[in-house]
Amino acid sequence: MHISAQLIDDDAGRTLVAASSVTARDAKGNKTERAKAVGAMLGERAKAKGIGEAVFDRGGYRYHGRIKALGDAARSAGLRF
User: Which pTM was predicted?
Assistant: First the structure.
């Protein structure tokens, strides 16, 4: 029902930026639309913190559907991976 994403610094072991459809105000519509909103929010928050590049770990999920929508929206917000 919901989707979340976070940028983690593996060396320090802490979360740098997080976004979730639970807290996203504009995360309405079907699951894919909510994933797009979360990806855009994640990209904007990363940009605000000066993070421009990250590694995209899908967690074992195939890169299609909601995962692809989240990734594409984060890329369009300025995050590179």
Answer: 0.88
